[in-house]
Design brief:
802 residues; alpha+beta; Jelly Rolls; Leucine-rich repeat, LRR (right-handed beta-alpha superhelix); 5 domains; 13-stranded mixed beta sheet; 6-stranded mixed beta sheet; 18% helix; 28% strand; elongated; binds 2-acetamido-2-deoxy-beta-D-glucopyranose
């Protein structure tokens, strides 16, 4: 007796452990659940976000799914620049639908969910599959994967339960797979267009006027939305350092987005945005972000009309035209103009200056979404919880994944559902010969709409739980072939059997004769039961000790009928999710759904691979027209002007063989520059390490160095310009010292290393001597380097210290 008590206590303890891990929110402190699919390590850090020292942690997907197999992309596509996140994936060769489950969410909250898919010929079939992705039971997108480029898709939706599921659906065009999956909780006031009956599917999100920032994402965007630069040769770009557009609670736009804009080159030319829709019934939501970034003299006017397919849009919503001058730019809230468009298959939004406008139209950013009706109704949540407890308790191996009943074409095998008040309920469950062992758990009694239950041909034992009396609609119960189960019906079902509303099939016809015969076997069963439990307990302890992260789905079989319902069944964080849109149309359009996600060498910061691109010597020769235009020579080597394929002017800094700057400094500069990202630091566009050739490719700074500018005999700088240059250089340095992690000390700040853009914006250059300073480590090199008299104040400070 006492040993049984101890055992019971031990079990309660174990159950308690399992519950506590199951109930804790899966959201990390930043509000994310990031999953690296197919990862065998517990987690991986993604540094692709940038330079602030903040990074996202991606967990292995093991605790989020129990189907599929781990795979790796083919070596051939494992380029050095590809982020490690995309090396692994999970593939789903079996089952038509396989689902990931995010648990412990908050019902009624908004979530942004993003899936990324990089095929990389992982299965050596050289055939990127096409398949569907669902959010719960509602169609979300059709994934058209590509061998070398990641496909990504995003949806913003309300959680209508405390869990959400993402399901991959095989549509007969290849095996579904997934590389990463992310969920981010959004503020309740964000995306007011989203409610429990409408969700938004991403089509495009562009930041304009930002060709030096090809991708803005986390940490600049706290929700890791990806803002791609919109490349247009015909638009003029401009940017400002000042804070424009106060923070907007509706879209929580990163400030960088406000600070750049594109405009047409004259008031005559309209600024247009076009895309092709999939069908006239598709409804789009277009958000235009417009905020003035230039200092406009009062004699000038920027005023324009906004039309969509010739219909006046802004003017019909608000009295137009759209006049930016009326707003004070320091207090102007971000203006996101929402437009819902439908009824066409091709759309053109046009921003056209009015006759009185002296300035061309301006646009900062665009977000384009498809609006989806959330039409699917998920299975009754009580049924969902119960069937999942049954599934995990008996380890039912029938490929059950996703919502049990909905959509009907994915109803789980071995069960049937019926709509009650429009809500699907499980009415028939046939687990005949499904390998069930152990006692019959009372959870079956929670499938309260059950009409037929077939448990024949298994190895169930013990009594029939009284909880089964809850099954008032039950007309058929079959437990034949379970040699060690009691055939004594609980009182309620017994009554139903007597009045002929229940057909009960069991091995031995007369339950009253059974009681006597089974006396000895019951004792035997109890002994076997205790032994089995003991073994299970040991096994569970082992499993728990061996695992760093206990599996939320571990379920302890109930010891016996008398211990009441297992605590797990009360606290089970549901396995099955719900969500939006069942209209199966697909997004094939303006969607810039492909992106190259890459990481640079060394420092681990990720950028799109067109930034920090690697050049060959012959590339450089072509770009610089055989090194024709030398614009300067430093200790490092010569600098040449060049032009990239897209027309961008660049400065190519070639390392001369006699350079005092060694390979180490060169690599330091590349590493430091890939890490930093600030308006007042010169932007590195690429580099070359081709045999002997070492070169850095920078953005071209038209006005040269500050030193030359100061000594120049031309028009002297005004005091205001000088002040601005000082201020901007200070901002660049402040960024290096405060925002970078670890902080960088430049060690050679001098007028020769401050470059000026065409509009005299100052940017700090030449990071070859800079040092990462880790305040936790005790040593900073005290050697005086760089140009005497030009040392960073910080460095001097530390020189005194050591
Ligand atoms: C993959 O993307 C590349 C580059 O955009 C494209 O040329 C190629 O056709 C795509 N392949 C497939 C199978 O879609
Ligand atoms: C969601 O928003 C749409 C459009 O504003 C509205 O018609 C609908 O009633 C809303 N649904 C809910 C459940 O609030
Ligand atoms: C959503 O459903 C309503 C009512 O059935 C319909 O009028 C509307 O056009 C649908 N919207 C979309 C985006 O499908
Ligand atoms: C359950 O399935 C088995 C075989 O899969 C079948 O023989 C049996 O008739 C089914 N039971 C019911 C009640 O339909
Ligand atoms: C079964 O139903 C009872 C009573 O309604 C409830 O307390 C229990 O949590 C349910 N169990 C499951 C697994 O849903």
């Amino acid at each position: 007796m006492s040993s049984r008590k101890m055992l019971h206590g031990c079990l309660v303890l174990l159950v308690g452990l399992v519950i506590s891990t199951g109930v804790d929110s899966q959201l990390d402190p930043l509000g994310f659940i990031n999953i690296d699919c197919g990862l065998s390590n517990p987690s991986i850090i993604d540094n692709s976000g940038g330079d602030s020292g903040e990074s996202l942690q991606f967990l292995s997907d093991e605790q989020f799914i129990d189907t599929g197999v781990n795979k790796q992309i083919s070596n051939q596509y494992d380029q050095p620049k590809l982020s490690d996140l995309y090396l692994t994936l999970r593939s789903f060769p079996s089952g038509s639908r396989n689902c990931y489950t995010f648990r412990s969410l908050t019902e009624g909250f908004k979530y942004l969910v993003k899936g990324v898919f990089l095929y990389g010929n992982y299965d050596n079939l050289n055939s990127p599959p096409i398949f569907d992705i669902y959010l719960g039971i509602n169609y979300w997108d059709t994934v058209k994967s590509n061998t070398t480029i990641s496909y990504y898709t995003e949806i913003i939706a309300i959680a209508t339960t405390d869990y959400m599921q993402v399901c991959l659906v095989n549509t007969g065009q290849g095996t579904p797979f997934i590389s990463t999956l992310q969920l981010k909780q959004l503020g309740t006031s964000m995306y007011p267009n989203v409610n429990s009956s409408l969700s938004l599917v991403h089509v495009a999100r562009y930041n304009l006027g930002a060709s030096s920032y090809p991708l803005i994402r986390f940490p600049d965007d706290r929700h890791d939305r990806w803002w791609l630069n919109y490349n247009s040769r015909t638009l003029t770009e401009d940017s400002t350092n000042s804070a424009v557009g106060s923070s907007d609670t509706e879209f929580d736009t990163p400030p960088y987005i406000f600070q750049t804009a594109a405009m047409t080159s004259s008031t005559k030319e309209p600024l247009t945005i076009s895309w092709t829709g999939n069908s006239p019934s598709t409804l789009y939501l277009i958000l235009l972000h417009i905020v003035e970034i230039q200092n406009i003299p009062s004699t000038d006017l920027r005023e324009f009309d906004i039309t969509c397919n010739q219909d006046t849009w802004y003017t019909s919503v608000n009295p137009g035209p759209f006049n930016l001058q009326i707003d004070d730019k320091t207090t102007l809230p971000a203006k996101w103009l929402p437009l819902a468009a439908t009824g066409d298959t091709s759309y053109t939004i046009s921003l056209q200056a009015t006759a009185s406008s002296t300035l061309p139209p301006l646009l900062n950013a665009i977000q384009l979404y498809e609006i989806r009706n959330v039409t699917g109704v998920p299975t009754d949540s009580g049924d969902v919880t119960a069937i999942n407890v049954i599934k995990s308790n008996y380890k039912v191996n029938k490929g059950w994944s996703g919502d049990p009943c909905a959509p009907t074409k994915f109803t789980w095998t071995s069960l049937q559902c019926t709509l009650y008040s429009n809500i699907p309920r499980i009415t028939h469950l046939n687990l005949s010969s499904a390998g069930l062992t152990g006692s019959l758990i009372s959870t079956f009694g929670n499938l309260t709409a059950l009409v037929s239950l077939d448990l024949s041909g298994n190895d169930l034992s013990g009594a029939l739980p009284t909880y089964l009396d809850q099954l008032v609609a039950l007309t058929y119960l079959d437990i034949t072939g379970n040699k060690r189960i009691s055939t004594m019906l609980p009182p309620g079902l017994q009554k139903k059997q007597q009045d002929g509303t229940l057909t009960f099939k069991s091995e031995l016809g007369d339950p009253t004769q059974q009681t006597k015969k089974r006396k000895i076997p019951v004792v035997l069963i109890a002994v076997i039961g205790v032994v089995v439990l003991l073994l299970l307990t040991v096994a569970i302890i082992l499993v728990l000790c061996l695992r760093k992260q206990p599996d939320n789905q571990i379920n302890i079989p109930k010891p016996n009928e008398n211990t009441g319902s297992s605590p797990l069944t009360n606290n089970y964080a549901g396995n099955y999710a719900y969500s939006p849109a069942a209209n199966i149309s697909h997004v094939e359009n303006a969607g810039q759904n492909y992106a190259n996600i890459s990481k640079p060498n060394g420092s681990g910061e990720g950028i799109l691979n067109f930034e920090n691109r690697q050049f060959t010597y012959s590339d450089l020769e072509r770009i610089t027209n055989s090194f024709q235009n030398n614009i300067g020579t430093g200790g490092y080597g010569s600098v040449y002007v060049g032009v990239l394929e897209n027309g961008t002017q660049v400065a190519v800094k070639m390392r001369s063989h006699s350079s005092s700057q060694g390979v180490k400094e060169f690599l330091a500069e590349v590493q430091n520059l890939t890490r930093v990202h600030h308006k007042n630091l010169v932007t590195l566009l690429g580099y070359s390490m081709d045999g002997d050739c070492m070169a850095l490719v920078y953005e071209y700074m038209q006005e040269g160095t500050l030193q030359d500018k100061l000594r120049d005999n031309g028009k002297p700088l005004t005091w205001k310009e000088r002040l601005q240059i000082v201020y901007e250089s200070a901002q660049g340095l402040e960024y290096l010292h405060k925002a970078c992690s670890p902080p960088l000390i430049h060690r050679d700040v001098k007028t020769n290393n401050i470059l000026l853009s065409a509009n005299l914006e100052a940017k700090i250059d030449d990071f070859g001597l800079s040092r990462a300073f880790n305040s936790a480590s005790s040593h900073v090199s005290t050697a005086v380097v760089g140009t005497p008299g030009y040392l960073d104040p910080e460095l001097r400070h530390f020189s005194y210290l050591f």
